[in-house]
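Whiteboard transcription, Tuesday session. T.W. wrote the structure tokens on the left side:
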């Protein structure tokens, strides 16, 4: 292989990686725990948080805080799973992109 061919292949791979990353960033991932639902985008930014108030008692605030953290962790794990599924083939090259 000549150097020009290697560079063209690297550029194609870079475009493919960026396309997949953009697809993931545009997706939404929902995490749920009991009466809390959070939605994150592929950048792990929270875009929505819903609390089912009918199930919430004012004495449950501490529990609500814990459940909210668990719901966020659940949504983040879904983002990570999607990255692994779509970007796993580029395993060592992702450090600079994420």
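and on the right, the sequence the group agreed on:
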């Amino acid at each position: 292989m000549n150097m020009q061919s290697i560079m063209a292949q690297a550029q194609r791979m870079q475009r493919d990686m960026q396309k997949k990353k953009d697809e993931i960033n545009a997706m939404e991932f929902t995490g749920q725990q009991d009466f809390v639902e959070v939605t994150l985008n592929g950048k792990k930014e929270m875009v929505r948080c819903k609390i089912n108030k009918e199930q919430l008692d004012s004495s449950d605030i501490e529990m609500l805080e814990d459940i909210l953290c668990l719901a966020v962790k659940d949504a983040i794990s879904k983002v990570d799973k999607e990255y692994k599924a779509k970007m796993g083939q580029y395993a060592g090259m992702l450090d600079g992109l994420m």
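Someone added at the bottom: The mean pLDDT is 84.
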